[in-house]
Amino acid sequence: MWGYTTGVMKAQRIALVVGGLILAGAVFWTVRTGSLWKNSSQSTVPASIVSTPISGEAKLNSPELKYGYVQASSTASAGVKPGVSVPSLNRPLVIPKSFSPEIALSAKKNIETLIDALKKNSENATLWGELGMERKGIEDYEGAKEAYAYALKLQPNNAIFADNLGVIYGDYLKDYPKAEHYFLLAIKLDPKTEYRYLRALEFYQYALKDIPKAKAILKQGLVAIPGDVSFTTLLETL
Asked: Which of 57, 100, 136, 148 stands 20 to 30 A from 172 (CA)?
């Protein structure tokens, strides 16, 4: 019984530390996105669309975490290679019946506004990222995947698009090899951001139940961010 209680306490400490740090990162990017979006001369989407997802999200054993944010620091795109097709903007818009009429209407308007904007500028990575977020909000995970993937093709160095793809594949589509690929890609693109490692930690610990990999990603984080107290603390609990 003592061992079981100790294990529960460790799991609770891990969830609190990881949850707090990743949530702080999400809040940072949400605020940053909102302020920068308003200054974007290329965007035709109102700032009200930059928001958290409209539906609840089942997380990797941590339901309090919020993953649906995208980086809007730049609307410039690197462009995609010739022959890469643009995702269809005619994808059916299906709102879950569980949504209230008000939320359903808001989601419909947001997505239609984004689609209209993308018809005028199909190489705006920020708009594709926002469409991915809104599609995820109505539980259209395939549509969200397509939008995020195209946004990443437009901006291949954007760690947040890679991170969002990891979440879609890991939390919703349950394609763990692809989820791991994108989580690690996000770290490679942005190795100095703490919560990228914490996201991968949760994935390894709760989805794959692979403690050696969970420890390894924390050690990798300590190499990139020496002396990080949260990484050290979490290593002691695993």
From this structure: 100
Contacts of 224 (CB under 8 A, 6+ apart): 191, 192, 197
Select from 3.90.79.10, 1.10.2020.10, 3.40.50.2300, 1.25.40.10 the CATH code of 2-237: 1.25.40.10
From the number of C-beta atoms within 10 Å of its C-beta (0-12, 13-18, 19+), residue 210 rates as middle
pLDDT (tens digit per residue) in 80-106: 656 578 999 999 999 999 999 999 999
Q: State the DSSP code for 207.
A: I
Enter the tokens of residue 122: 């199909």
Long-range CB contacts (within 8 A, 24+) of 181-188: 185/159, 186/159, 186/160, 186/162, 187/159, 187/217, 187/220
